[in-house]
Amino acid sequence: MSKIILTGDRPTGRLHLGHFVGSLRRRVELQNSGGFEKIYIMIADAQALTDNADNPEKIRQNIIEVALDYLSVGIDPEKSVIFIQSQIPQLTELTFYYMNLVTVSRLQRNPTVKSEILLRNFETSIPVGFFTYPISQASDITAFKATTVPAGEDQEPMIEQAREIVRKFNSVYGDTLVEPSILLPDNKACLRLPGTDGKAKMSKSLGNCIYLADTPEDVKKKVMSMYTDPDHIRVEDPGKIEGNTVFTYLDAFCTDEDFAEFLPDYSCLDELKEHYKKGGLGDVKVKKFLLNVINKQLEPIRVRRKEYEQNIPLVYDILKKGTQEAYQVAQQTLDEVKAAMKINYFDDQELIKGQSEKYKEK
Ligand code: ATP
Ligand code: MG
How close is the Cα of 351 to the center of ligand 2, in Å? Predict the structure, then answer.
């Protein structure tokens, strides 16, 4: 079976380091590995509207931001299909049929839905569209017959829900859809990168992000005020590594070469950690190192972004072409789904013949 990737992001803001380590970095590697037949990357504007219905302008403005971030991290439109979700009505149509295969209580048990409802303070006024977005996500994945979804850990329950829908669909209507699997980052620190405030997840909605497009000055401000070990007050005090965001970021980003380049007193991260735990290593020194490590990663991204920013019509053109290609693929799957469900009345000569004969006999 051919290997196909589908991933995406909500255009609710610019992309940040959490996206980078959780998914973007992997996408670029996979794209360049040649091991996949197709890579679809979706800007999930329809999903973003499920909790931003009163602010479509925000979504509209951020589509280009996400597209610029994609191109600047190295997503190559010659190799990957970048498209806009709302322009593929087939996805909405699939969602409507899949809805019949999922119970309300199953959605209520979805841990990601639960935590996102809490995060957004919806309490009892949850928009129906938001509540059902895991089903819409199953449509996005299955429409492209994706086998692989590179994503952060928060997406695991979503992929599980999609797999259940596929199994249910195939058992009721016959083998049509492909079961996807999630591809998690292999580095533990990248599964769910915490925010600069130390909170569990770096997230646009929590305002605790370092954005890919941040200037070196922005990054400096954010890194220097990052959450560390609150009990590590004097340089000579022993410090804690667990829950210390600066070290989690180093786990996610730094390599031994970074030590040689920026902090040659240490050969690797383990040595730095040992010194911090023992005492005698100040937060400022570690933060300055982290700042260098992050800026080294972000610099080429900033440079490429600047280039694309000078050619916005080209970026829209890339999105339009990708969307046209995605449209065709989704239509093909929708045709197969409708045939499997036997709701393809006008294409089914057998049906017309059978019905005619039924009446002829009378
Ligand atoms: P929003 O607050 O609008 O939901 P978000 O910052 O959570 O935005 P999404 O667009 O929901 O970002 O996530 C897109 C992708 O990035 C998903 O694959 C998700 O797993 C991954 N991702 C987002 N935040 C992180 C993070 N902090 N660590 C690892 N992966 C992340
Ligand atoms: Mg999210």
Answer: 45
Any atom of ligand 1 within 6 Å of the Cβ of 297: no
Tokens of 357: 């004969």
Q: Which CATH class is domain 4-192+312-354?
A: alpha beta
Q: In sequence order, what E strands does the chain have?
A: 4-9, 38-43, 81-84, 148-150, 181-183
**Separation CA 86–CA 100 (nearest Å):** 21
Could you tell which of 6, 17, 23, 149 is best to mutate to test the pocket of ligand 1, judged by most ligand atoms within 8 Å of the CB?
A: 23
Parse the chain into domains and list their residue ranges: 4-192+312-354, 216-308
Tokens of residue 96, six digits:
């409507």
Return the residue whose CA atom lies nearest to atom 14 of ligand 1.
9
Q: Do domains 4-192+312-354 and 216-308 have the same CATH topology?
A: no
Check if 158 has its Cβ closer than 6 Å to any atom of ligand 1. no
User: For tokens 């937060």, what's the residue?
Assistant: 283
216-308 CATH fold: Tyrosyl-Transfer RNA Synthetase (1.10.240)
Give, for 143, the enclosing helix (H) or strand (E).
helix 133-143
Q: For residue 154, which atom of ligand 1 is closest to its CA? A: 20
Closest CA to 223 of 256, 262, 195, 251: 195
- Quote the tokens at residue 14: 């610019």
Pick the ligand that lies closest to the CA of residue 8.
1
Ligand 1 in reach of 185 Cβ (< 6 A): no
Longest dimension (CA), the chain: 97
Distance (Å) from CA 28 to ligand 2 centroid: 20
Decide: 19 in ligand 1 pocket, CB within 6 A. Answer: yes
Residue 362 has what pLDDT? 67
Structure token pair of residue 50? 């499920």
Mean pLDDT by runs of 10 across the 362 residues of the chain is: 92 95 93 95 97 96 98 97 98 98 94 88 88 96 97 92 98 98 90 91 89 96 94 92 95 94 96 96 96 96 97 98 98 97 92 90 68
Residue nearest to atom 20 of ligand 1 (CA): 152
Closest CA to 97 of 21, 172, 206: 172
